[in-house]
Design brief:
Layout lengths: L1 E3 L11 H7 L3 H10 L3 H8 L4 H11 L4 H9 L10 H12 L4 E5 L4 H7 L2 H4 L8 E4 H4 L6 H11 L7 E4 L2 H10 L2 E4 L3 H10 L5
Parallel strand pairs: 1-2, 1-4, 2-3, 4-5
């Protein structure tokens, strides 16, 4: 079994893909992303908070920015338009070898709906995954052991039968502590070599 992280591994998730369309001045865009739709704010939704309620509360704090705030989750898919071709090729290669594939992502609950259907239009490779675990749905985050247990139970496999590929080192360490094999993704070349050493690639 191979369990893939999404952002930073398969998809180049970046709010700037969206906000470059909405805010012409790059400096103003960066100010908005660092002072309004901040990473700590977004992380709450990754952990299971309701994006609609979070949007409502944030709009109340920043009058005049309502439309820009609404776009964050309203047009979230536009932040995920770009994939990493070499990693897509790896997914295709593993799928061709009949390796069971799963997705495990720290993301808001709306991504679960997206990845199960709409994403397949732009990113057909998502159709190769047997199932998807999104933190906002299960309300726990990597590297919490609970989410690794959920993905193993979802797929019906034991931790030692699976390899996690993740670009975040704490997530990799958490998976290993839970008993999974794990690859710290830094480049497609290194990840392919790591999978080869684990016997998953010829």
């Amino acid at each position: 079994m191979v369990v893939f992280d999404m952002g930073g591994v398969l998809i180049d998730w970046n709010p700037r893909y969206l906000y470059r369309k909405l805010i012409a001045d790059p400096e103003e865009m960066e100010r908005f992303l660092t002072t309004v739709t901040t990473t700590p704010w977004h992380n709450l939704q990754d952990a299971g908070a309701d994006p609609a309620e979070a949007t409502r509360l944030l709009k109340a704090k920043h009058p005049g920015r309502e439309a820009l705030i609404e776009a964050f989750y309203g047009r979230f898919d536009e932040m995920m338009e770009q994939s990493f071709p070499e990693m897509v090729a790896l997914v295709e290669r593993l799928h061709g070898a009949r390796t069971p594939l799963y997705l495990l992502s720290n993301a808001p609950d709306l991504v679960d709906v997206w990845v199960r259907g709409p994403a397949h239009v732009r990113h057909p490779f998502f159709g190769h995954f047997r199932d998807y675990v999104v933190s906002g749905v299960v309300k726990c985050l990597k590297p919490d052991a609970a989410i690794y247990d959920i993905v193993c139970r979802t797929g019906g496999f034991q931790p030692g039968e699976a390899v996690l590929i993740d670009d975040n080192l704490p997530n990799v360490e958490g998976a290993r502590a839970f008993g999974m094999h794990a690859v710290h993704h830094r480049s497609a070349t290194e990840t392919v070599e790591a999978l080869r050493k684990l016997g998953l690639l010829a």
